[in-house]
Amino acid sequence: MYSYTEFDRDFLRARVDEFRGQVARRLDGSLTEDEFKPLRLMNGLYLQLHAYMLRVAIPYGTLRSAQMRKLAEISERWDRGYGHFTTRQNIQFNWPRLTDVPDMLDALSEVGMHAIQTSGNCIRNVTADHFAGAAPGEAEDPRITAELVRQWSTDHPEFAYLPRKFKVAVTALEQDRAVIRFHDIGLRVKSRDGEIGYEVVIGGGLGRTPMIGKVVREWLPKRDLLAYLEAILRVYNLSGRRDNKYKARIKILVHETGLDELRERIEAEFATGARLLGDVNPDVIAQIEQSFVDPEFRDDPVAPFAPSPAFQAFLDTNLSAHKRADHAIVTVSTKPIGGTPGDVTADQMRVLADLAEIYGYDELRISHEQNVILPHVHRNDLAKVYEALRAAGLATANVGLVSDIIACPGLDYCALATARSIPVAQQISEMFADIDAQHDIGPLKIKISGCINACGHHHVGHIGILGLDRAGVENYQLTLGGDGTEDAAVGDRTGPGFAYDEVVPAVGRLIHAYLEAREDKHESFLHTYRRVSLAPFKAALYGERDAAAA
Amino acid sequence: MTQIVSKDGFVADQFADLERLAPEDYRPGAALALGPTADPGALAEQLSSAPLVEITVGGFGDGREFSIGALLRRQGYRGHLRACGPLLVDQFRALIRCGFDDIALPDEMAERQPEAQWRAVPFETGYRARLLNA
Question: Which InterPro entries does the UniProt entry name for this protein (chain B) (predicted)?
Fold first, then answer.
């Protein structure tokens, strides 16, 4: 894992002092609220429905146990004893007081953490495949690139006041868990003739105008990465629309300019810029690369064990293949039946930190699906890890299943929301409280957003739910067939939306229709939808409703 | 009226007497006045004889001037570079790093952001400069 250098620590101290000064200047009137807003946003501080919200960066979702313990401490000291893991691998605290925030930032800086660039019209916290460094088949750990991008984009003098926010994601596999086709820039690390480089995707995004990113470069040598990123960002900073915030993302620039012309502009800028940009400092690169070497994996022979049915169910869903046969990746679901997706209590954080320390080489990950991952666990330790998770209420065997729902905070917290998300997720989860039934339904991604901004990624849910406000009444639109992976697809609208008390039964009918339509247990919801298309699902959704109304 | 702010604090405008001209009206020796939509690539002739380039920002939070300044410097402009408009002390460090020499700040904003705040801005090495030896 990357450890902060003296340079990083000095930078962080200076930024915490700077923000403390900004808060003081807001309070003494030096800064107007309009002037303070972009400054607080660039330090992760939002004004929400009921209170301020502090969004803390977890670069590429990687955490050490000491950092997780600090998050637990912060949640108890300045918040309400829990944190909320987000779809961008960050954590949010929902109830801080403005005057406490500089102290919270101080506490974070003690473990090399911060809230910088988790909001605002700047380059946001960089995300990566949550199995990075543990998954089999990677050309290189994508976090090497993600850390390089983090350093380059942090406090970049030219790109702090972009037309709109800007998100970069990195993976090193064809199988895409980092949703790179729905980011402003997606990077796929690959190897060619022994050299490391990238496929570069631009212009993806969700929000009110979902777009699948397009390949702007099939092959970019690693040494050219920062010069190429600067070229993209400079073209975007100068040409991106600033007249309408809903048309200001780079996806609109790509769409309105056309990929070929925009590529020409980027390449022209890159050709000039690359010649003048200094080579990347080799000492810094070496230090980053050394940060992501494998831990010293234990190589005890794997002992056979006979799991209980409940433990077996957990192994079936929450375990993924590790690059070493004697280890496994354990995904800890933050979605107990009826719970709030992504919410983890301080006590649970400490349990996770302990498990990482004892059994997991001191590493944790946060996934964009709002779960927590122990990326390296020796198979002989799985039973002990499971027991500890069970005791902490963290052993729900539902990863990838119908109740592993992504939901944005929605109207329960968010100032932008037009409808509730969390209660819808909770009710769907309760409808399928029987874990055996969930295992029978199989892989199914439900994603819920409480407004058009799509923080819940509904466009890429196998079932997507979008909560809107229709003349003061919550109304939920459904989409089917969305996919955030390498087979990227935006979900199809089913038709008219459903009222709050109708939407959960409607999802139930969709799943029933799937069970009727699938060829066998091995044909997933998504594959069945791709084969049979909308018709049987529409019949299940609206046939019944119209009949009831008649 | 405006207040000129450089790394030395509040200073007098050494170019006060210079005529400001837009690119299409430009005469050698005058200051070149640019807006937020300027295309630095099309200004080679004017830049070769302008002792001062002023870029008026597009409004609070419009960050195009950072890229325009950086591009002018990359093209080899060695004269004086100034950003004009509603800028915050918090943007000063980035402006200097992009190649600006000073800013022209509306008086109203200079009153709310006194000289001491500008002089307190730290100019330590940033991430980008450290990475790129720039």
Answer: UCP030820
> Which structure tokens are listed for A461?
């849910």
Here the tokens at position A62 are 């990687």
In CATH, what number does A309-391 get? Answer: 3.30.70.3340
> What percentage of chain B has pLDDT greater than the value 90?
92
Nearest to B22 by CA among B71, B56, B67: B56
What percent of chain A clears pLDDT 70, i.e. is strictly above it?
99
- Angle, helices A382-391 vs A346-359, to 10°: value is 170
ipTM over 0.90: yes
Mean pLDDT over the full length of chain B: 95
Q: Which H or E element spans position A201?
A: strand A195-202
Low-confidence ranges of chain B (pLDDT < 70): 134
CATH number of A6-109: 3.90.480.20
Is B64 in Cβ contact with A159 (below 8 Å)? Answer: no
Dihedral of CA A82/A85/A90/A95: which sign? negative
Distance CA A478, CA B109 (A): 49
Instruction: Compare all CA atoms of chain B with the CA of A281 and give the residue at the minimum distance.
Output: B131
What tens digit of pLDDT does each residue of A295-342 get? 999 999 999 999 999 999 999 999 999 999 999 999 999 999 999 999
CA distance A29 to chain B (A): 8
**CATH of the domain spanning A411-549, picked from 3.30.70.2750, 1.10.150.120, 3.40.1440.60, 3.30.413.10:** 3.30.413.10
DSSP strand E in A308-392: where? 319-321, 327-332, 343-345, 364-366, 372-378
Q: Does A346 touch chain B (CB under 8 A)?
A: no
Query: pLDDT tens digits for A351-400?
Result: 999 999 999 999 999 999 999 999 999 999 999 999 999 999 999 999 99
Looking at residue A318, its pLDDT comes to 98
| pLDDT one-digit tens code per residue, A461-507 | 999 999 999 999 999 999 999 999 999 999 999 999 999 999 999 99
> Which residues between 55 and 114 in chain B have a beta carbon less than 8 angstroms from any beta carbon of chain A?
58, 60-64, 66-68, 70-71, 74, 88, 90-91, 93-95, 97-98, 112-113
Cα dihedral angle (A143, A146, A151, A153), rounded to 10 degrees? -170
Q: Is the Cβ of B124 closer than 8 Å to some Cβ of chain A?
A: yes
Q: What is the DSSP letter of A138?
A: -
CATH code at A127-288: 3.30.413.10
Q: Do A309-391 and A411-549 come out as alike in CATH topology? A: no
